[in-house]
């Protein structure tokens, strides 16, 4: 298709984004329960961030490369982004299924590494697909619909181990063995991941390059690994000003959420429930409850995204102010966890976190996609996600452990104070972004 892009209906946007349901099943199970698996296999709390490091390190390499390759892929039948959806889905499904069967820490860390790298093969082309198919006036709407689907996936997947326990699966196991409730949850997640991405592949068409002859000519001129690497480096050096400013926001945002994923389970099971033995029934029941609370942020992000989708379809959004307020709300939610004494009140905290999560998954991409060359959308989306993995690498290499202990003290619950502080800083960092093309629809 050439010329102006046609507006798509809600269900067309839903179909092209539906694969994110499975991607988020993978991320939610990974984020909510890999630390539980690590603790079950004998990991010390302070070692948990380091066990996560392979995932963001791989993402640092995979994301821009996949973006670059998908920009230069076109097949009349298979499209541009869809081949990457499929390859990522197959690898992710295998890694997600086998992760809870790990019998040693190195195996679990390796499974997380493969899982995260594989999900990224699918995820970044999904982001680029929204920019490929939607006119600028529908970009915010498109990314918000993706976030709605992500919220559904987060809520369901985060509650799966609890649901498996309610249906009769064992929630305890021998020391060093992951309970059946977690194994079944990961198996269901693997099925949903593959089937939902396959649904998008089968129901969504892609536009060919506007000038196919010029596209093929550029591909021939830029053959070879060195040429691709040189192109990625050139795009990094010449990234738009908006991307650099958004990078500051992303750094604080994803440092905060990495802290939550790494430490929510040990922090809440210890601080709220007084459970510290990973092989005990009390710990495993408390860990299921943590999954419920993490599901709350997914559920609220779903409703918040639904509201944003309705609003974005009717009026123009000030993306910058919306994102700033949402991140500050999430930061307050994290900080409140420290002061909570009644477990049910954690749903309030994670509801605020859900508001931030919905915005993180939509507004930065909407701002970015309005500020970059459409021909390089894939590689720029991949480069942009370096601002997601770099803060996670910094956190995993000791950043979390050093900061929360140096600023707030030794207790592991102080990780939530750190996460809240960083998210509030991320919110105020939006004031750096002044370009109207990025901040308004």
UniProtKB/TrEMBL annotation:
Any one cellular-component term (Gene Ontology): membrane
GO molecular function: transmembrane transporter activity
InterPro entries: MFS, MFS_dom, MFS_trans_sf
Keywords, in A-Z order: Membrane, Transmembrane, Transmembrane helix, Transport
Signal peptide (from-to): none
A Pfam family reported for this protein in Swiss-Prot or TrEMBL: MFS_1
Lineage: Bacteria, Pseudomonadati, Bacteroidota, Cytophagia, Cytophagales
Major facilitator superfamily (MFS) profile domain location: 242-441
Subcellular location: Membrane
PROSITE patterns according to UniProt: MFS (PS50850)
Membrane-crossing residue ranges in chain numbering: 12-30, 50-70, 82-99, 143-164, 184-202, 251-273, 293-312, 321-340, 346-367, 379-400, 412-433
Gene3D superfamilies on file: MFS general substrate transporter like domains
PANTHER family: SOLUTE CARRIER FAMILY 45 MEMBER 3 ISOFORM X1 (PTHR19432:SF35), SUGAR TRANSPORTER (PTHR19432)
Organism: Algoriphagus sanaruensis
Topology in membrane: Multi-pass membrane protein
Stated name of the protein: MFS transporter
Any coiled-coil regions, as ranges: none
């Amino acid at each position: 298709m050439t010329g102006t892009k046609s507006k798509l209906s809600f269900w067309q946007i839903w179909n092209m984004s539906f694969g994110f349901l499975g991607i988020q099943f993978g991320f939610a199970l990974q984020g909510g329960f890999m630390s539980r698996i690590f603790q079950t296999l004998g990991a010390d709390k302070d070692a948990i961030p380091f066990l996560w490091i392979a995932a963001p390190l791989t993402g640092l390499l995979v994301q821009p490369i996949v973006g670059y390759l998908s920009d230069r892929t076109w097949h009349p039948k298979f499209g541009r982004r869809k081949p990457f959806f499929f390859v990522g889905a197959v690898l992710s499904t295998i890694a997600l299924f086998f992760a809870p069967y790990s019998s040693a820490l190195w195996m679990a860390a390796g499974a997380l590494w493969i899982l995260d790298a594989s999900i990224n093969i699918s995820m970044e082309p999904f982001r680029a697909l929204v920019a490929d198919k939607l006119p600028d006036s529908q970009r915010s709407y498109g990314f918000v619909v993706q976030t709605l689907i992500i919220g559904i996936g987060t809520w369901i997947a985060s509650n799966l181990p609890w649901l498996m326990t309610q249906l009769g699966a064992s929630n305890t196991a021998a020391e060093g063995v992951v309970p059946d409730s977690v194994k079944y949850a990961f198996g269901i997640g693997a099925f949903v991941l593959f089937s939902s991405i396959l649904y998008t592949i089968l129901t969504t068409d892609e536009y060919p390059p506007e000038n196919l002859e010029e596209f093929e000519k550029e591909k021939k001129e830029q053959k070879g690994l060195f040429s691709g690497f040189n192109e990625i480096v050139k795009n990094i050096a010449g990234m738009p000003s908006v991307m650099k400013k958004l990078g500051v926001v992303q750094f604080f945002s994803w440092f905060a959420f990495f802290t939550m994923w790494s430490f929510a389970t040990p922090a809440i099971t210890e601080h709220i429930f007084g459970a510290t033995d990973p092989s005990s029934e009390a710990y495993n029941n408390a860990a299921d409850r943590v999954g419920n609370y993490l599901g709350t942020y997914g559920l609220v992000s779903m409703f918040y995204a639904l509201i944003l989708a309705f609003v974005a379809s009717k009026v123009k959004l000030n993306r910058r102010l919306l994102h700033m307020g949402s991140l500050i709300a999430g930061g307050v939610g994290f900080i409140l966890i420290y002061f909570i004494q009644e477990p049910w009140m954690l749903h309030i905290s994670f509801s605020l976190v859900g508001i931030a999560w919905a915005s993180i998954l939509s507004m930065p991409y909407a701002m970015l996609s309005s500020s970059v060359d459409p021909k390089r959308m894939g590689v720029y989306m991949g480069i942009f996600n370096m601002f997601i993995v770099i803060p996670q690498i910094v956190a995993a290499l000791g950043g979390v452990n050093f900061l929360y202990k140096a600023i707030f003290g030794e207790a592991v619950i102080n990780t939530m104070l750190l996460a809240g502080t960083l998210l509030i800083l991320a919110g105020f960092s939006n004031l750096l972004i002044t370009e109207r093309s990025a901040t308004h629809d």
